[in-house]
Automatic annotation (TrEMBL):
Claim: Lyase is one of the keywords in the record: no
Pfam family, one: ABC_tran
Gene3D superfamilies referenced in this protein's UniProt entry, alphabetically: P-loop containing nucleotide triphosphate hydrolases
Name under which the protein is recorded: ABC transporter ATP-binding protein
Keyword Transport: yes
Domain (ABC transporter): residue spans on this chain: 4-236
GO molecular function: ATP binding
InterPro entries xref list: AAA+_ATPase (IPR003593), ABC_transporter-like_ATP-bd (IPR003439), ABC_transporter-like_CS (IPR017871), ABC_transporter_ATP-bind (IPR050166), P-loop_NTPase (IPR027417)
Keywords (A to Z) from UniProt: ATP-binding, Nucleotide-binding, Transport
């Protein structure tokens, strides 16, 4: 478990007349075991915020820390799952997981294979370890990508619209699986999505960013009973009221961004 904090983050792409401010004075915190989603209009800096947290970009101003220690580039304490699966097509599901694991741990080959099998089983692919990406559906490929990230045991999961390219049924199944995984492993999660219902269903808190440049418009706490079946959760007053609050905040920014 870990806490990640972003304090007064500003990020500017380019310089001079070509400078574009993606984020301005953004402060975000995700506590140990907390699931925090980030939503907002297109171009508000959601993905930029995630890449900064992953250490793939350096902020123009502000600090990012894990458990109080400033980050310095990518690290195994932060695992990233992208919308694109980025699997090696010439490697099996098992080999895709073990390949990444072998580069970030000092485990021996037997331990690496054992952990990879365990993570593939965790995402429901224990019987598909020897299949190649061309033999897997989109949902199964994303499960492999998630297993590959979980295998090196990051304290923090960073997810950039990981289910955005999937059909509705597969997306719903993976949302439920992700909830189970996060509950079971108690990992801290930052999740970027444009889907309000998805953010509400998965999150402890939802951060709404303003239209460009992205600033924190509001933070919405989510208090819903996830012990109920999914269909019942989506019909509860708590879920509907929370989703409406988030949607209204995003809509206000869409209107501002369109100039109306």
């Amino acid at each position: 478990m870990a806490t990640v904090t972003l304090d007064d983050i500003t990020h500017v792409y380019g310089s001079g007349d070509d400078a574009v401010t993606a984020l301005s004075d953004v402060s975000v915190r995700a506590d140990e075991g907390e699931f925090v989603s980030i939503v907002g209009p297109s171009g508000c800096g959601k993905s930029t915020l995630l890449y900064l947290t992953g250490g793939f970009l350096d902020p123009t101003a502000g600090t990012i820390a894990v458990d109080g220690d400033p980050i310095d580039g990518p690290g195994t304490d932060r695992g990233v799952v992208f919308q694109e699966y980025a699997l090696y097509p010439w490697k099996t599901a098992m080999e895709n997981v073990t390949f990444g694991l072998s580069h970030v741990t000092d485990l021996d080959a037997e331990a690496i294979e054992s952990r990879a099998r365990a993570e593939l089983a965790r995402v429901g692919l224990e019987g598909d370890a020897d299949k190649y990406p061309t033999e897997l559906s989109g949902g199964m490929k994303q499960r492999v990508a998630i297993a590959r990230t979980l295998a090196y045991d990051p304290a923090i999961l960073l997810m950039d619209e990981p289910f955005g390219a999937l059909d509705d049924q597969t997306r719903e199944l993976l949302q439920e699986d992700l909830l189970d995984i996060c509950t079971e492993t108690d990992r801290t999660s930052l999740f970027v999505t444009h889907d309000i219902e998805e953010a509400t269903y998965l999150s402890d808190r939802v951060i709404v960013l303003t239209a460009q440049p992205g600033e924190v418009k509001t933070v919405v706490s989510v208090d819903i009973d996830r012990s109920l079946p999914r269909d019942e959760v989506l019909r509860t007053d708590a879920f509907l009221e929370t989703a409406t609050e988030i949607r209204s905040a995003v809509h206000e920014e869409l209107v501002i961004g369109s100039g109306h």
